[in-house]
Specification:
The chain is α+β, with helices and mostly antiparallel strands. Helices cover about 25% and strands about 30% of the residues. The radius of gyration is 22 Å and the shape is globular. The relative contact order is 0.13.
Length: about 425
């Protein structure tokens, strides 16, 4: 195996392969493309791996989740245990987080989430959703990461994402800080930190721009170091090369943290709030992709998806619907679903419902719905199992986390 051979892993919807090839060549590597459906065994021939940015499987269900369940990621896990470096960039970072490679708990449990961007000044949300700009990040001097240079200066890098906010629970936070797993933090040009926008462009806890595993050989990074114009983030790739060429013995380390289990509670409908369910007029490609992924896990199931709104306040519903803020009537419509035998439904809601908060703010500020208290946006997934092991298969689906990340979302029986 050549110490120069690096595989960049591509899923449907991945991009930035040309930028990655150029950056790897600039640092003396030999880049090779590896598609998600190439034989996983081929990955044994490489000294390291980069999981590209982009929109794998069009970010359906949740950014990175479908790609994380593909067989190729099982081989990446095996290679990471041998000490080989794995760098996930943007969507690649989301894939590493969803697969449990970062922050690297035993059995690759899911411990963190990359949630919706929340641009904050003080306590006020000034923006949500996709955001791209140039920013600065600085390395953690105490990190053991293979991708951080000791004594490194702030790096100027571009970002381009909608779900890049690192979030984790308080108990996991202690483990992350104790082990110095936050490898890079957003900062200003002089290296000063701030939790506020624009220095922190997405609201990440502790201004985290990249997170590593305890061994330091796997890193999930939201900014795009491969897109820099003049090798401004070259420290990341030169550090990776130095790590590969070193003769230091490697010992894999994992966190030993009791991860969250998928717990499903019954959704309690509030008679004082108005519920709306939305379906699509055209084919629901998102539900189709999730169904195909579940089928790939060996479960024969049919999947449907609905968008769910819960509206609280003294408002005229018809006037609110006429704004077209909740849904697009050209391709969506309101619907109702009743009891059906052999069908399971689960409502998934973000712990921090950025979309609902943004919708509420728009309806109040732009359309003068002063009596509106809140709009909460959720997704309802409907499962029909076509086998004799319904309960077992539903449990397998829920525990795959394809519907909900247990760190940033809650799942209810609906």
């Amino acid at each position: 195996m050549s110490s120069k051979k690096i595989a960049f892993i591509q899923f449907p919807g991945s991009n930035t392969e040309n930028e990655t090839i150029n950056m790897l060549k600039k640092h003396g590597f030999e880049p090779f493309g590896h598609f998600w459906n190439d034989p996983p065994d081929m990955l044994k021939n490489y000294a390291g791996y980069i999981i590209l940015g982009g929109f794998s499987f069009e970010d359906r269900s949740r950014s990175g989740i479908i790609a994380s369940l593909e067989p190729v990621m099982q081989e990446v896990k095996k290679q990471s245990l041998l000490g080989k470096p794995v760098l996930g960039i943007c969507n690649g970072a989301q894939i590493l987080v969803e697969s449990g490679l970062v922050p690297g708990n035993e059995n690759f449990n899911t411990l963190v989430s990359l949630a919706d961007n929340k641009r904050v000044v003080g306590n006020r949300i000034v923006g949500t959703g996709y955001y791209n700009k140039w920013c600065y990040i600085k390395p953690n001097e105490d990190s053991l990461s293979a991708f951080a240079k000791k004594g490194g200066k702030p790096l100027r890098v571009p970002i381009a994402h909608a779900e890049g906010r690192f979030v984790f629970d308080k108990d996991v936070e202690k483990e992350i800080l104790h082990n110095n797993l936050i490898t890079y933090q957003y900062c200003d040009s002089s290296g000063l930190l701030s939790k506020d926008f624009p220095t922190n462009p997405n609201g990440s806890l502790f201004s985290a721009a990249a997170l590593s595993n305890p061994s330091g050989n796997v890193m999930a990074m939201m900014p795009h170091p491969e897109r820099t114009l003049n090798n401004e983030a070259g420290d990341i790739f030169s550090s990776m090369k130095k790590y590969i060429e070193s003769d230091k013995p490697f010992s894999y380390k994992a966190l030993r943290f009791e991860s969250k289990k998928t717990r499903v509670q019954r959704f309690e409908k509030n008679k004082n709030k108005t519920e709306i369910l939305i379906s699509t007029i055209i084919a629901d490609n998102e539900a189709g992709s999730v169904e195909k992924c579940i089928n790939g896990l060996g479960i024969d199931a049919k999947i449907k998806k609905y968008v769910h709104f819960e509206i609280d306040g003294d408002i005229d519903l018809n006037s609110l619907l006429a704004t077209d803020v909740l849904f697009n009537p050209s391709k969506e419509y309101m619907t109702k679903i009743g009891e059906s035998s052999g069908v399971d439904r689960f409502l998934v809601r973000n712990n921090d419902d950025i979309h609902g908060q943004s919708i509420t703010q728009t309806l109040r500020d732009r359309f003068n719905f002063t009596g509106l208290n809140s709009v909460q946006r959720s997704v309802v997934w409907e499962i029909k199992i076509n086998s004799g092991s319904r309960k077992k298969d539903v449990d397998l689906i829920l525990n795959s986390h394809i519907f909900a990340n247990p760190v940033s979302q809650k799942c209810h029986e609906y």
